[in-house]
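Lesson 9: reading folded outputs for more than one chain in a single document. The general rule is that every protein is listed as its sequence immediately followed by its structure tokens, and records are never interleaved. Here is the first one.
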Amino acid sequence: MIKDFLAEYTQYRTMGEKAMAQVSDEGLNQVLGPENNSIAIIVRHISGNLLSRFTDFLTTDGEKEWRDRDSEFSDTTYARKQLDDMWARGWAAVESQLSALTDEDLQKTVSIRGNPLTVHEALCRSLAHTASHIGQIVLLAKVLSGGNWKSLSIPKGSSQQANRHLTK
């Protein structure tokens, strides 16, 4: 159901935002080694991908001619405000398109790079892609938080306590 996809996207958006909030402005642009990406670069890529995939979602190919994917990975430094704006634009495209879809639309066909997919398949693909990059952001944020990381889920060693709380 569309509402389930929207809920999952929202969960990953929130996770990314909570992770990035724990990193200094400088840390957002830090690259931890050759061939690696900073949080800022990952944000730019997620935003570019979401904008491309969800602009005119049902009517045009998901890989837009105006998208320059390679530039999303260029070594550029961004201010937090710039990243926040990119992030918001990408997520706004997702939320706008998903809120306009119905469950019946899940069987319609869209294309990505000329490959036909059902809307359901395209959303699963996009969600998996986005989630994998959010995982990268979380890992980088944890490393870059300077030892001040606040868990986004159940902290290490707290599973039994969390399970007891859930059963009450």
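And here is the second record, again sequence then tokens.
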Amino acid sequence: MRSILPRHIAIDSVDVWTQDESRVGQQGSLTRIWAPRGTRPRKVRQQQFISAYIYGASCASTGDSFGLIFPETNTKSMQIYLDRLSAHIALGRHAAVVIDNAGWHTSKELLVPNNITLIPLPPYSPELNPMEQVWEWLKQNHLSNLTFNNYEDIVDRLSIAWNDFSNNVNLVKSMCCRQWIDNLSM
């Protein structure tokens, strides 16, 4: 990781974060549910198209996490997210943020704050990003088999789901820990 970080950053001041986005909306997720044997429970699936996007990042070593909800994914949203994440990072710490290769992550228009270094994953490797598992957990435990009335309802329920995840430091650490991330920190 030394070759990726600016030379003036002390390696012992770096925390590795993983970041990603996920869509949550009216055409949401269906998951399995418990039902008495021999019954076929009905699930409602909405046909509308209103959705929101959550940008989230977590640090497995500290259990810290940070999320924001936006109406769309683009460079402007990513810039706002990085600026707010930068303010969230502890004073004197530097965040090496592992990202995928979405266009808004690699845009030339993106101004990365001084206390953040973006580290792209190899192309077509979402399985390497622990945040994918976080999205799956949020949807399975909070956001599946639901109907949403409007955008505000989506934001409210998504906020509750994210706060449940991010307030549980042990859950954050266990879901986001990966050996390859530990190796980056060395």
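What the second record shows: Residues 60 and 97 are 12 Å apart (CA to CA).
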